[in-house]
Amino acid sequence: MKVHLMTVGDEILIGQIVDTNSSWMARQLNLAGARITGICSVSDDEAGIEHALADALWQADAVLMTGGLGPTKDDITKKTLAQFFGMPLEFHQPTYDRILRFFERLGRTTTEGHRRQCFMPVGATLLHNKMGTAPGMWFEKDGKIVVSMPGVPYEMEYLMEYEVIPRLKRFFPGFPIAHRTILTAGEGESKIAERLESLEDELPPHIKLAYLPNLGQVRLRLSGSQPDGEALERELDAYAQKVQERLGALVFGFETDRLEAAVGRLLQAQGKKLVTAESCTGGYLAHLITSVPGSSSYFKGSVIAYSNEVKMKQLRVNPQTLETYGAVSEQTVAEMVKGALELLEADVAVAVSGIAGPGGGSPEKPVGTIWMAVGDREKVLTRRIYAGKDRLKNIEYSASHALNFVRQFLEQ
Amino acid sequence: MKVHLMTVGDEILIGQIVDTNSSWMARQLNLAGARITGICSVSDDEAGIEHALADALWQADAVLMTGGLGPTKDDITKKTLAQFFGMPLEFHQPTYDRILRFFERLGRTTTEGHRRQCFMPVGATLLHNKMGTAPGMWFEKDGKIVVSMPGVPYEMEYLMEYEVIPRLKRFFPGFPIAHRTILTAGEGESKIAERLESLEDELPPHIKLAYLPNLGQVRLRLSGSQPDGEALERELDAYAQKVQERLGALVFGFETDRLEAAVGRLLQAQGKKLVTAESCTGGYLAHLITSVPGSSSYFKGSVIAYSNEVKMKQLRVNPQTLETYGAVSEQTVAEMVKGALELLEADVAVAVSGIAGPGGGSPEKPVGTIWMAVGDREKVLTRRIYAGKDRLKNIEYSASHALNFVRQFLEQ
Predict the structure, then answer these.
(1) Is the pLDDT of residue B250 over 70?
(2) Are A97 and A132 found together in one domain?
C-alpha cells in the first residue's frame, strides 16, 4: 500500500516546531508494510489543504493527515474535508457526551469551543481517541482512504496504533513484511558492524540489516519480505539468534524493550533494591528508572545532590574529598555510592557527577567530563566517560551509560 | 515572496531521520520576510521529484530543495533538475579543482564518484559551498527560482545564510512577516480562547492568532504581514500586550522561553533556593529544573522518595499520616514539603505524590490522581489534579503543573 503523510498547521511552516509526527508515522507504516510516497506540510488554509489532498490522493492509496482538529478558530481541517467529500457536518451527541464525561472526571467545565468540535461529517467513520477530546476521522472514496487525526503526538500515536494501522492492514492486504529488532548498549555502531561483517555477507537478498544508533545504544533491525510469511518468521528468528550470539553481553533486549526495563528485571530477579545519587543528571536517571511501570518494587528513591552541601550532609561525601579532587572525580562518585547505600538502605547504588555544560568546564575537566560509580556493600566500580558539548544530550547520554553500568554490575 | 521547501531522500520517508532542515529553513525564511507555502519530502526518484517540483512552482515564487547531491549513486536531483530546465550537464573543472584541493588538505584521495559530482547544468549559477564538496545550484525561469542544496545541515545552513537568502531578498523585494509568541500555563486552550474571543474579533485581517497546546501549557502565536515592517512590529507588540493583559498571571514568558527557566528567574531574583520531594514524578521535575543552564545557583537538590520508607526516614513524613491518609494525599505532600525544607535546608520546596499508573489505582483514587504541595517555612499550599491514564504523560503533566504551582507561589 502507498501512503502519503500530510501535516496541517502554520507552526511547522514558520519553523516553530519540528515535524516529528511524520517521522514516527513513516517508521510505523514502513513496519506495517507501507511505502511512503511523500510527506507534506500545508498551511491552515482551505484551498491549500484541498490542493494538497487531491495531489496526495493521486499519488497514494491512503492519505494520513494530522493537525487542525482542536476547539479553537484556526482549525479548519474538518470543514475542508467535509467539503472535499461532499458530506454535511452534523452535531454528534455521543462525541459531546464523551467530552463532557472527560472534563467532569478532570473536574473542569467545557466551553462553546468543545460543542463546536462535535460537529462531524456524516458518512465518515469516527475513530475513538482515548487520549483526548477530538476523535480521528476515516473517509473512504473510490477505493482510497483519507484519515484525519489530531496533531498532539500522543493522541496521534494512540490512534495510529489502535485504530488506523489495523484498519489499513485490513483494507490493503499485501506481501508479508517482518522485522526483528535486537537492542544493544555499550559499543558504538562501527565496532558492532565489525563483529557482524561476515554475518551481513551471509544474509539473503530479501533480508536487510539496519543500524539505528542513539545515545550510547544501538538498535539492530533485521527486515525481510517474501511471499511465505511463516518461512520469513523462521528465517528472521534464526538470524536474530546469530546476531545475539555474536554480540553476547552487548544485547540487553529485543523489539521495544528498554534498557531501564532490562535493569528492572535483573533487580527483581536478584531481589535487590536500587537507589541513585545524582549530580549532573539532576534526576533524569531516576526518571528513566521510574518511567517503567512497577518500578516501585525495586527502586527505593534517590538523593539529587546538585549542591556540594547536599553531597556532604546527605550523602556523607568527605569535605576533604571535594576539596582535593573536586565534585567531578572518581573519589566523589565512589563516596556518593557508599553514602546513598547507607542513607537509603539499598542493595545497589549508582552515582553520577559531571560537567553538563555550557559553563563549569576547565582545561583538565572540559564540559562533557562525567564520572560514575556503581556498587554494593562489598565493592564499588567507577568509570569516566566523555560526552559532548550539549547540556541536554550530556544528561541523557550519561544517564543511559549509567544504566548500562548498573546492568553490567548486576550481570557479573 | 512565497517559498516552497522540498527535501529529497528516502531516509526521511522511511522515518529514519527527522527533517530538521526544513524547520530551520522555514524559521530563517520567515525572518527574511518569506511566507512558506508548503514543505514536502519526496523519494530519490525522477518522476516524483519532477511532479513535486512542478506543483511547488505552481504554488510559490521560489522552491528550495535540499538533499540528493552527494557522490553516491542514489542521488539524482541534479540530473532531474537539468532535465526539468532543459540544460545539458557539462564537466566543470573549477569545481573539480576545488574538490581536489579540499581532499588534499584533509590528506585523503578522491574517488570516481567525486568526478561524477562535477558535471553541472549549463546555465545554472553555482553557489560556493565552503563547508563541503557539492556546490549549491540556482536556477531562474519565468521569473521563478529553484535552488538545490546539499542535505548536510551545516552545508545547507552556510549556503542559506551567505548565498541563498541574500539573493532571494534581492530577487523578491517584498512584504515583511513577523510573529509574537506568548507562553501560558494553568488553563486549557478553550478557556483561554474564551478570554480572548473579543480580542480575536478585533484583529485586522493581516494578523492571525494561533493556539498551540501541550501538556498543561498553551503557546499563543500572533502572526502578521503588511508592507510597512516597522508599523507591523508596533501592531504586533500592541496586540501581544493586549493578550498579556487579558491573560494576566497565566503568561509566564515569550517566544522560546520555558516554564522551568521562568521559575529559575523568579528564584534568582528573590535569592531563594528550591528543592523537590518527588514520589510519582520520580525525578522528572528535578530533571526539568536542572535542564536549565546555571540552575545550580538556585536548585540545591531533591529527595526522590519512591518508597514509603524513604518518605518516613528522610522526609520525616509521619507513619500515622501514611497509614491514615495514604501516600497520595494532601497531608502527605504537605509533610513532604516540610521535610524537604528541613532536610535540604532550602527556602522553597515542592512535593508531588500521585498514581502514575498503570497499576495502583482504586475507586477513590483512580490512576491519574496527583497531589502536590508548594511551601516555605511560613505556609504550604496544596492542590489535587487529575491527569490521564498514560504513565509517562501523567509524569510529564504533573511535573509541568507542579512547576507552574511553584511559579504561582513565588509570584504571590
Answers:
(1) yes
(2) yes
Assess whether B166 and B195 both reside in one domain.
no
Q: Residue B192 is part of a domain; what is its CATH number? A: 3.30.70.2860
* pTM value > 0.95: no
- Work out the pLDDT band at A297, boundaries 50, 70, 90: very high
Last residue of a domain, one of B171, B192, B218: B171
Residue A200, all three cell numbers: 551481513
How far off is chain A from B376, nearest CA to CA, in Å? 18
Smallest Cα distance from B155 to chain A, Å? 19
Residues 25-44 (B) with a CB less than 8 A from some CB of A:
25-30, 36-43
Whether residues A303 and A354 share a domain: the answer is yes
- What grid cell was written down for A375? 556498587
This model of the complex carries an ipTM of 0.75
Range of the domain at B13: 2-171
Q: Is A307 on the interface with B (CB under 8 A)?
A: yes
Q: What angle do the packed helices A46-59 and B46-59 form, to 10 degrees?
A: 170
Does one domain contain both B95 and B48? yes
Map residue B91 onto helix, strand or coil: strand
Q: Look at A23 and B18 and tell me if their CB atoms are within 8 Å.
A: yes
Q: Which residue of B has its CA nearest to A308?
A: B300
Strand partners, B147: B64, B138
Q: Are residues A303 and A365 in the same domain?
A: yes
Instruction: Using CB atoms, pick whichever of B188, B304, B310 lies closest to residue A283.
Output: B304
Is the pLDDT at A165 greater than 90, yes or no?
yes
A286 in the same domain as A185: no
CB nearest to A286's CB, from B181, B188, B282: B282
Question: Are B41 and A40 within 8 A, CB to CB?
Answer: yes
Give chain B's mean pLDDT: 92
The three-class DSSP label of residue A288 is helix
User: What's the pLDDT at B138?
Assistant: 97
DSSP three-state, residue A340: helix
A76 touches chain B (CB under 8 A): no
A41 near A13, Cβ under 8 Å? yes
Report which of residues A225 and B59 the model is more confident about: B59
Q: Which one of B20, B223, B302, B328 makes the best mutation probe of the A interface by having the most chain A beta carbons within 10 Å?
A: B302
| Euclidean distance between CA atoms B387 and A133, whole angstroms | 14
Which residues in chain A have their CB less than 8 angstroms from residue B193's CB? 71-73, 111, 113
pLDDT of amino acid B139:
96
Domain count, chain A: 3
CA distance A33 to A358: 43
Is a pLDDT exceeding 80 seen at residue B322? yes
